[in-house]
Amino acid sequence: MDTSKVIVGLLLHLLRKCLTSGKLWINSISKWKETKKSSCSYVRAVEVQNYDKNDFECTLCYRYLYQPVTTPCGHSFCRTCLDRCLDHSTSCPLCKTSIKMFLAERRTAVTEFVETAMQTVMASECRERKQQHDEEMDELAAAGKDSQHGIPIFIATLAIPTISCPLHVFEPRYRLMIRRCMESGTREFGMCVPMENAENGYADSGTMLEIRDIEYTPDGRSIVNTVGSRRFRIVSKSVKDGYNTAAVEFLQDVVPTSNLSELHKLHDCVHKLASKWYESIEHMTKRRILVHYGPMPPVEGEYWTIPNGPAWMWWVIVILPLDHRIQLSILNETSLKRRLEILHKIVHCVLVQQHPQQAPAEGSQ
């Protein structure tokens, strides 16, 4: 028998089988799509006595489920309720089964079956529950708009306008606070420095931080990249769900209308002096400053009209070896001229201490 003919025959047989299998597979896929399409438009009638609305209650907030999420162990909760529990523990709130992988993979997608079932058998209750949630989000989104809506306060360090402030968020109260800032769309919160003798343990003024981006870790912690924006003075302090809040009034520099030439002269003098001091810093220190804060910002046009003044001035304030109390007093100052005068004295003193022979006389231009 010719071996080549046998091999060719086997190959033709296999080819016919593959083609036949391919047709069957395509037909089965087509039938599955048709079945799925027809089943989506079909809603099965449910007898009232066969379900209980209480079955759709969240066992954490005792309200009807909103955006229900089901854990691997089969328990359903409101997404926001489950998130708050996972801030404290990586176990299921109901049966205490470990759901570390669930948290690590951040599988918090809404369970469509539960949501569809609720919308089918209790549509009016679902609308009411959604309205409740929307009202809560509107309340959070109104933070800082008036004295009735306080801003969330993060107590950690002194934030400075225009300066980046990366944060490692691991405390449950701050996890909740940051999540609410993102969900409400405000993407900002207040930062205050701790003070032992102050009310509630933190300063009476601070800076708003705008959230640029967030990177989550598998265990629920997060690295939050923020940048300083508006300054504020606290009117009253309170607490909400474990984290601090405060009614505030925002601070802006008073725009000068006279003696602008004198202000420009003072500004240029302080800028030149600060630049001289920065150039005199040792190489390794300067390198660390560049890594953390970047180079000195350029002078803006019409800098005297900016609500917080020129950015270079805040850059110098944050890298100077100053006590937080001095920085805080400068932060509260709403006169650009006064702030420049304070900065001029500070930089001059630092230069005198570092280079007694080379430092210029105070007040020299």
TrEMBL record:
Q: Which residue windows are transmembrane per the record?
A: none
Record keyword Signal present: yes
Per UniProt, what is one GO molecular function of this protein? zinc ion binding
Q: Which PROSITE patterns match?
A: LON_N, ZF_RING_1, ZF_RING_2
Task: Give the signal peptide, or none.
Answer: 1-20
Q: Does the keyword DNA repair apply?
A: no
Keywords associated with the record:
Metal-binding, Signal, Zinc, Zinc-finger
Q: Where is the Lon N-terminal domain?
A: 148-351
InterPro entries, sorted: Lon_prtase_N, Lon_prtase_N_sf, PUA-like_sf, Znf_RING, Znf_RING/FYVE/PHD, Znf_RING_CS
Gene3D superfamilies per record: LON domain-like (2.30.130.40), Zinc/RING finger domain, C3HC4 (zinc finger) (3.30.40.10)
SUPFAM superfamilies to which the protein is assigned, alphabetical = PUA domain-like, RING/U-box
Q: Which residues form the RING-type domain?
A: 58-96
Entry-linked PANTHER family: LON PEPTIDASE N-TERMINAL DOMAIN AND RING FINGER PROTEIN C14F5.10C, RING FINGER PROTEIN 127
Please give the name of this protein.
RING-type domain-containing protein
State the species of origin: Scylla olivacea
